[in-house]
Amino acid sequence: MMTYTEAVSYVNSTNWKNESRGLQRMRSLMAALHNPEKKVRYVHIAGTNGKGSCAAMLSSIFQAAGYKTGLYTSPHLVRENERMQIGGIPVPDDRFASLAEEVKHAADGIGVRPTEFETLTAMAFLYFAEEKVELAALEVGLGGRLDATNVLTDPALCVIMNIGLEHTEILGDTLEKIAGEKAGIIKDHVPVICHPGTPGVMEVFRQVAAEHDAPLAVADFPSLRTQSLGLSGQVLTYQDLTDVRLPLIGEHQAGNAAVAIEASRKLGIPDSSIRQGLERVRWPGRFEVLSKNPVFIADGAHNPQCARTLAAALDTVFPGQKVEFLLGVLQDKDYREMMDLLLPYARGFILLKPDSPRALDSDVLAGYLRAHGAKVRTAQSVNEALDLGFELADGTPLVLTGSLYLLGEVRNGYLTSYKGREHGNS
Hints:
This protein is an alpha/beta fold and 426 residues long. The protein has helices at residues 4-13, 24-32, 51-64, 93-110, 116-130, 168-171, 175-182, 199-211, 251-266, 271-280, 304-317, 335-342, 362-371, 382-393, 404-418; strands spanning 41-46, 69-72, 84-86, 89-90, 135-139, 157-160, 192-194, 216-218, 224-230, 233-238, 241-246, 288-292, 295-298, 323-327, 346-351, 376-378, 398-401.
């Protein structure tokens, strides 16, 4: 019997990505496991940004409506078992281990070598089926058409969030090509709810939906209003649903909530449950206020579109105010454009390299920022980065961002061992 640590090692030892993209490995694995994906009702969620937030909102709404609810998202912030949850609770360590063992046994039995994401997705399908989950929110990993989650053949609903230019070497170099990959989750006769997009993107969605005879609805953004906003969240109105309290900050989260409301209504969930679910939603690392005094915010902006969204949130919450950034990025992201978007808001930068083989060296990032006139310091550890951050912020907001890998590492270090020391560093 595997331990949790052994299970994590096994999952991490499978390839991050496989040479051949496609669904055949996953279909074979599902068949060997007796097709657990067919035993639960799923809402399948694709998109470049916002899909995890929308999945978290839907999961909270489903729970408020009384369903035994599953949630599958990626990546994790601290521990792998965060990715699959029932009722908002991550899969227990011993169960994570037994699921990994079950998937490994099935894969070995048919001579299949699944990728890391395929392994985790198979584990989630198995977990939700074994626990008789009634309704689950399932986030796509990458793209849609060839994503491991797309072994689903008959979801209850398909949701497509905002589309941006990311993973262009895999998904295509235009918004329309990327939209085509995301629209690959659309199934025959299954309703589709989507976030508004450019005319070209919307035309792709309409065309694919028509080919599948799938009813398509677009979230009604013109009816969306933010009534109030602060560090505790915002109060929204969407169509005739008024005074909805959302503990997530930013105009983008209001838009994600509009899609979640539309999707929930399509499933027949009453507005009372939608309201309650949105009020209770928790989604760590997305403009998350870790401390109000001093102000410390964690936001997982990891691409230019997310950086633009973060900049808009800073404009709204801290108008005219500069912040101290604590950040690190991955080398496969367009870090130059990300930094160009954040530089106008920066009083200074503290750089810490994310714990990932794909991390961009801090010296490269520092060189770019200094060439643009920024004050830059580098740190070698989480505690050093936090010490520097609170010392240099000196009463102005400190914003942790750039990579979900870094965010998970620093957020965990802050919450488990550092919190309470901030005031000694000013």
